[in-house]
Amino acid sequence: MDSQSLTPAPPAHGSRCQVALLGFGTVGQAVARILCEHPPAGVELTHIFNRGVARKRTDWVPASVQWTDDISDVFRSGAHIVVELVGGTDPAGEWVERALDSGKSVVTANKQLIAERGAALLARARERRCHLRFEGSVAGGIPIIGALRDGLAGDRIRRVLGILNGTCNYILTSMANGDASFDEALQQAQVLGYAEADPTDDVEGYDARAKLAILCAAALRADVRPQRIATRSIRVVEAVDFAHARRLGCTIRQVSHAEGDEHGGLQATVRPTLVPRHSALAHVAGSQNIVVLQGRYGGETVFSGSGAGGGPTSVAVVSDISAVARLEPERDEGPTLRVPTRISGEFVTPHYLRFVVRDRPGIIARIAGVMEQHDINIDAVLQLPYPTKDALPFVVTVEACLPSILAEAMRHIGELDFHVQPPVDLPILGGESS
Amino acid sequence: MDSQSLTPAPPAHGSRCQVALLGFGTVGQAVARILCEHPPAGVELTHIFNRGVARKRTDWVPASVQWTDDISDVFRSGAHIVVELVGGTDPAGEWVERALDSGKSVVTANKQLIAERGAALLARARERRCHLRFEGSVAGGIPIIGALRDGLAGDRIRRVLGILNGTCNYILTSMANGDASFDEALQQAQVLGYAEADPTDDVEGYDARAKLAILCAAALRADVRPQRIATRSIRVVEAVDFAHARRLGCTIRQVSHAEGDEHGGLQATVRPTLVPRHSALAHVAGSQNIVVLQGRYGGETVFSGSGAGGGPTSVAVVSDISAVARLEPERDEGPTLRVPTRISGEFVTPHYLRFVVRDRPGIIARIAGVMEQHDINIDAVLQLPYPTKDALPFVVTVEACLPSILAEAMRHIGELDFHVQPPVDLPILGGESS
Questions:
Q1: Per-position pLDDT tens, chain A of length 434
Q2: Interface test with A, best of B3, B107, B223, B288 (most A CBs within 10 A)
Q3: Which of A40, A144, A299 sits opposite B154 (nearest CB)?
Q4: Residue B113 CA from chain centroid, whole number
Q5: Cross-chain Cβ contact B331/A142 below 8 Å
Q6: Which has fewest Cβ within 10 Å: A397, B60, B71, B266?
Q7: Closest chain A C-alpha to B276 CA, distance in angstroms
């Protein structure tokens, strides 16, 4: 049972609620540290599983904790809660299933697993009258899943906007602040530990789309596989785009965006986007995350904080442990997620189009001609001083239009013979949204 | 029981959970509208109490709802949850007690009542195995109480910073944007409905300190009466202060600030404060609210949204109703609030001191002399171009010092003979904090 008061109720599991930790990496160690220093009332860390556990042992973990590299030890144990911090879908998914089948509740920070198989795992948890919690899987220390489940339960959420990947935000804010190139900013992020040696998951948007899929379920009750979310790499963004964006009163962020429509459809995208410089999204610097929710009744509510790292994620995990320890056995009838009738990335927004051309007369006219054929209205043409005419960047902004029609126009324009590199189009998030 | 899944569990009160509404003003009507349009699973509005109820009846409320102006009807009814939206401590407090004594859970948005008597009412609720929830009492639609109870339960919150009064924020942002005087900004706020005819509670900080007292309990586990929180009116702020603040890279906000110390003491203040223009507090415009929490493990987490108004507050109230409807009878052992060993407003910060003087030689020297006697270091002297020497404003900033020592120095300085109006001192929130 959840507590209405200001402090946690005692555990529902008799005198002690025993916790087994799977994975003793950065987050696992941070969770263990809180459980040793300031455990929630009645909660006790009893097992730590890790491969090659011998080299992981540390002296600040009490001697009462059993270390093991045999996962079966955990399932056979008396642990009430299994905390899965191994990551990936395999074998983590199988282990979560085995834990639930052994009657143990599960707390996880595994975004891939929950994004791919969350609904099925929740159903399995309900069958076993166990709990499955995953606050740490989205936006690290920002308690957004709980807010959607409890504090905003009375609203009908219409739109989710987020910056959900700290690596991309670090790279883009570095480029915005210092006119660094993408490669320089990425390298700096790698040196500082904000980006992995292989940054594909972050840079291509796969990490963010997994988190957005979880938020689609939690906020919009929409069941969507991450692979169905239209995603674009931030690699297309160059230093020159920030200069043009500034002139337009904007900066550039990797924005995760989802909205349900009235016909049961869902629009969802993860892509580099121009956002107004006065908006909450623009104020999120470095590796921070933000989630902006638009509710029918409550209007806009904004949550921001550390999106990753051992400390913030471990707070989410320990908060989930604390809640599960206090809860009665699960008796929920289950989520009513809807599979959207249609999933698209077709947000109708203004767009920013950047061309790099060998300068000569008539280029604007030819671009304008193609736009006119596709019924797209040009809003402005912007050209900053630039030293060379051989590879001249300039920007065209167009009024709100369907991305699919714009893509068709851009395909035609891309076939013209003045380009030095392929043109780039980025959506512009309206001033009405944060 | 709280649900771990993505949608609410069915009600714990058999087939229907009946709700009685006390008060049918702005928030009451907004709550009724959600309960009629999109009620949480199993929740049913059955009673509306209001004085002179005949003139309140509206046709969008179902005929099944019983209207009454006799409060006893509510206590005698089969309602499971009483929603108190009357406001004030009397008779609301008595009604909440009677509801709990009748075995009914209570949801309220009454900040004065919870700030003054929350701990006692929570104890009474526990005795009766009823719930008492109050998400709507602080920061309207921002689900901060729930976040502290659940999503951040694993952290140890060290500091609370907030903009908790939308009226003051509206006035101060108007002054910042347009160089309006305080009186002009207040009048405009009154015309637009952001300020009451009698703005005392807002402007003097009484509203914000009640909310801060609730946050002290929820975040810092400190039991403090609102009257013990050092509070300063925003009336001391003049247009000229914004001009000087801008030069210092700051703007001015009514900041609610609380921190616990390691010896069981509590520091808490509500006062106009200089905040860096790049900080989250400075970005909160108009009547928005924000809460910035600093946790030992999770770092900084920021929540912002609409601080008042029927829509946002009603979302908080309906979310509480939804949670209570799903909860088992209360079995919490109760909060462990500590009465602080010492309550003060002694935050050691740099300060902004504004003087308005009849200009003549030697003024800075005399001010500097008094500061030196009190071991306070002057950081900078700032004087903007000003048309008259008869009432010349200028600013001195001093390095971090104890407010009580500064107050003593300012008392001496105030006795000098060159002042045209009493000097004003405002704390400057450090760049390290948001």
A1: 333 333 334 445 556 899 999 999 999 999 999 999 999 988 999 999 999 888 889 999 999 999 999 999 999 999 999 999 999 999 999 999 999 999 999 999 999 999 999 999 999 999 999 999 999 999 988 999 999 988 888 899 999 999 999 999 999 999 998 878 999 999 999 998 888 999 999 999 999 999 999 999 999 999 999 999 999 999 999 999 999 999 999 999 999 999 998 889 999 999 999 999 999 999 998 889 999 999 999 999 999 999 888 899 999 999 999 999 987 776 665 557 888 989 999 999 999 999 999 999 999 999 999 999 999 999 999 998 888 889 999 999 999 999 999 999 999 999 999 999 999 999 999 854 44
A2: B3
A3: A40
A4: 14
A5: no
A6: B60
A7: 13
Answer whether the bond into residue A387 is a cis peptide, omega within 30°.
Answer: no
- Smallest Cβ–Cβ distance between B3 and the set A135, A304, A332 belongs to A332
Q: Between chain A and chain B, how many beta carbons pairs sit less than 8 Å apart?
A: 245
Instruction: Give pTM, 2 decimals.
Output: 0.91
Q: In the annotation, is B389 catalytic?
A: no
Q: Residue B319 and residue A151: Cβ atoms within 8 Å?
A: yes
Q: How far is CA B39 from the centre of its chain?
A: 28
Would you report the helix, strand and coil content of chain B in percent, each value rounded to 5?
A: 35, 25, 35
Residue of B56, B104, B111, B211 with catalytic role: B211
**DSSP codes, B210-238:** HHHHHHHHHHH-B---GGGSEE--GGG--
Of A194, A136, A167, nearest in space to A314 by CA: A136
What DSSP state is assigned to residue A149? I
Q: Does A9 contact B321 at a Cβ distance shorter than 8 Å?
A: no
Question: Which residue, among B413, B391, B29, has the nearest Cα to B240 in the 3D structure?
Answer: B391
- Cβ distance B142 to A301 less than 8 Å, yes or no, reads yes
**The two three-digit tokens of residue A4, written as one number:** 């209405």
d(CA B40, CA B150): 20
- What is the number of other CB atoms lying within 10 angstroms of the CB of residue A156? 17
**DSSP letter (8 states) at residue A330:** P
Q: For residues B90 and B84, is the Cβ–Cβ distance under 8 A?
A: no
Does B318 contact A153 at a Cβ distance shorter than 8 Å?
yes
B187's tokens: 């009048």
The active-site residue, picked from A56, A104, A111, A211, is A211
Q: Which residue among A146, A152, A328 places its CB closest to the CB of B315?
A: A152
Cβ distance B150 to A146 less than 8 Å, yes or no, reads yes
Q: Rounded to 5, what percent of chain A is helix, strand, coil?
A: 35, 25, 40
Taking the CA of residue A67 and the nearest CA in chain B, the distance in Å comes to 23
